[in-house]
Amino acid sequence: MFHLDILRNGRGFPRSRSEHFFKKGRRVFPTGITRVTVDHEPSPLYISRGEGAYLIDVDGNRLLDLNNNFTTLIHGHGFLPVADAVADLLHRGTCFSNPTEHEITLAELLIERIPAIEHIRFVNSGTEAVMFAIKAARAFTCRPGIARIEGAYHGAYDWAETGQAVSPAIWNDPLRSPAVPAYRGMPSSVGEEVTVIRFNDIADLERRIASAAPSLACILIDPMPSRAGLIAPEPSFFAAVEAIAKQYGILIVADEVLNLRQSYMGASARYGLHPDLVAAGKIIGGGFPVGAIGGRKEVMRVFASDSGKPLLSQGGTFSANPVSMVAGRVAMEAMTDGAFASLESLGDRIRAGLRKEIERHGAAFSVTGAASLFRIHPKGKQPTDFREAYLAPEEAELMGRLSRHFLNCGILLPNGAAACLSTAMTIADGDAVISAFADFLSILEATPTEAGM
Questions:
Q1: Which of 6, 203, 207, 398 is deepest in the core (most CB within 10 A)?
Q2: What 3-state DSSP class applies to 413?
Q3: Sheet of 366-368, strand order
Q4: Pick from 87, 85, 67: which is nearest to 77 by CA?
Q5: What is the per-residue pLDDT across 247-299, written as a single tens digit (0 to 9) for each?
Q6: Terminal C-alpha separation, the chain
Q7: CA 283 to CA 286: how far, in whole Å?
Q8: pLDDT averaged over the chain?
Q9: Which UniProt keywords apply (predicted)?
């Protein structure tokens, strides 16, 4: 049984080599790291290699990976078919200014699977995919504004970020707009072009869209917003989104950069949403940088240049590079209907096991997610939108301890984000996740005062 001082301080296994590299990193990077999403309390774990469902860090610690580079690696690490295909390709060139057949084959695969995609363009990241989807909606409608879900994450484009960093400080002030800037110095005009709506709240949706409709190009929506709680959509909410979009001539942009992994046809098809445009990424690159914008031919025509200058110009030095295209095709070909079903079955087993432990211990936790995704909340009532999922300081501290406990049990659990599964995981791996959570609840139960319960 682990002690609470280990839970708090994360001293459960050796990390001297990681600490050594972190010191070196602080000499060349702000804060010593190059991504704000990297956990560095007390220091980040530096990885030596990945093997299937596991990571091995520079200190030799072996960890079950529930992060998979933020849901990207649906087959885990070192997936041999991708590795072999890329190794063969490297000798023939990694990027060209001209197109290759590889971009066509990946495009054909995605168009065949995803009902909303008739034509597609490739870019280099999920952020780019969302950015160009928004620009395409603007070019098609001749309107500048967007509506987006409160608290959801859509990458680093100013208009997609606005309304992400909301907090309780503004919720009870009717004079404060929820379209708060994402960073200091963001032009105030950006917030004037962004309408923020609450997930699963039809009344809020209808009120806010009606007031901003003349300027709105699109409603940007993740079918199951991860950072906003990994909460399932109400069918009536998506029906309302489609009805109001049609009423005012607004396009629907589905951000499936993360949630495309929810089914063979993606998340929109799973939940009955019919978007005009889809932004994709992560799993479609097979572990290499990628993004894609797809949608109705009529809308995607804004990228066309066969009749002169396009309504929306889009390029990119590494867009549709053959390495990402080949890796993505091979990875996606391996994700058959059966592979998705198997992952979902494992996800169901883990979510059910976590909920059973919550009930057994009478703990104030809940679990959200679907398919190969899950998220644990330090709340007895399952949240239905971002405001309900928002962590109070004491809840955030408790979740930090949960992640450190999992780490000391040899499991890398994302703190405050979606945990995800890979095809490399086994039932035994899933049971280890449930066991680690049960152990944590036992510790909390045994020390209610110290644990803040």
A1: 398
A2: coil
A3: 366-368, 373-377, 419-420
A4: 67
A5: 999 999 999 999 999 999 999 999 999 999 999 999 999 999 999 999 999 99
A6: 19
A7: 6
A8: 93
A9: Aminotransferase, Pyridoxal phosphate, Transferase
